[in-house]
Design a protein that fits this description.
- The chain is α/β, with parallel strands linked by helices.
- Helix content is 41%, strand content 15%.
- It has helices spanning 9-15, 33-40, 54-60, 81-87, 104-108, 134-140, 143-152, 159-170, 178-186, 194-210, 212-226, 240-252, 283-288, and strands at residues 23-26, 45-50, 69-74, 93-99, 227-237, 271-273, 296-302.
- The mean pLDDT is 93.
């Protein structure tokens, strides 16, 4: 299955500083690109991979394991990291990698409803077994709730106007497809920036459907307990809101970015950032994979 071209593959795996007999976690298995690179660098040890998408589980079938190295696939959202590590009797890991966002495969399947390029049902679920869909949000959320997700998750300036137009439209009939949502948004979007506007709208709805911010916060909050001292946390994000959460957490240990100090004035934080500025793809990678252009890689080490 042509699932996803792994972004910043070499830089992210290098950032894990892999020990050949260590235990590593890839919380966003997807097509297995990052996992395969990690696994190949282990001569012993263990790799544990998470993904809630059933399509990713198919990619994990037959994923190599031998008597020295082991591979475990967990069909779950990464917000349940600690629970499943405990289930598999893993107390601490040497490194964790998260490649956030939507895979190329998910974008390219019209019926998933992630892409502005295709017409499909208002779906946008990462986990197909989840009952919460984009259709429920667009047709069921109050105007104020829509304003909040459009302005906060999509950073849409005229969120109030867009929310009002959606509410007015659904009074006549239910909004069922991505094409219908795009048509409504097109009435209030700046004509010169229509595609970017639609991308921000779809991003906002997708984040709400999948509780992406809540899940990311839960994941990061568990990392300080799950990583051994000296272990590496490696995160690739794709928009400013995600990157800000990751940056603040790595720098300060909280999501507000507020520094806390002990009695002697030393910073209190569970991680030390390895790279002060995010690593971004070079021109060659972007030319091969346009979806890599917004990627930002941050690396931190457990104190």
């Amino acid at each position: 299955m042509d699932y996803h071209v792994p972004v910043l593959l070499d830089k992210s795996v290098e950032g894990l500083d892999i020990r050949k007999g260590g235990v590593y976690v890839d919380v966003t298995f997807g097509g297995g690109g990052h996992s395969r690179e990690i696994y190949n660098k282990l001569s012993a040890g263990k790799l544990i991979a998470f993904d809630q998408d059933p399509d990713a589980r198919q990619n994990a079938e037959g994923f190599g394991s031998d008597e020295d190295r082991s591979f475990i696939f967990v069909a779950s959202n990464f917000r349940h990291l600690k629970k499943y590590l405990k289930f598999h009797k893993v107390e601490e890991v040497d490194g964790l990698l998260a490649d956030l966002g939507v895979s190329s495969h998910q974008f390219d399947e019209a019926e998933r409803g992630f892409s502005t390029r295709y017409d499909g049902k208002l779906n946008m679920r990462m986990d197909r077994n989840d009952s919460h869909t984009a259709k429920e949000i667009i047709n069921g959320y109050t105007e104020d709730d829509l304003i909040h997700i459009f302005s906060f998750y999509g950073e849409i300036r005229n969120a109030r106007t867009l929310a009002r137009k959606i509410v007015e439209s659904r009074e006549n009939r239910s909004i069922e497809t991505t094409a219908e949502l795009k048509a409504i948004a097109g009435q209030v979007a700046p004509k010169a920036r229509l595609e970017k506007y639609l991308a921000r709208l779809f991003q906002a709805v997708r984040i709400e459907v999948n509780e992406e911010f809540e899940a990311l916060k839960e994941l990061l909050g568990q990392c300080s307990d799950c990583l051994r001292s000296g272990g590496r946390l490696v995160v690739i994000s794709y928009h400013s809101l995600e990157d800000r959460l990751v940056k603040n957490f790595m720098n300060t240990g909280n999501f507000k970015g507020e520094h806390e100090k002990d009695f002697y004035g030393n910073l209190i934080r569970p991680f030390n950032p390895i790279n002060r500025k995010p690593v971004t793809p070079d021109e060659n990678e972007v030319a091969i994979n346009k979806r890599a252009r917004s990627a930002k890689l941050r690396i931190a080490e457990k104190t």
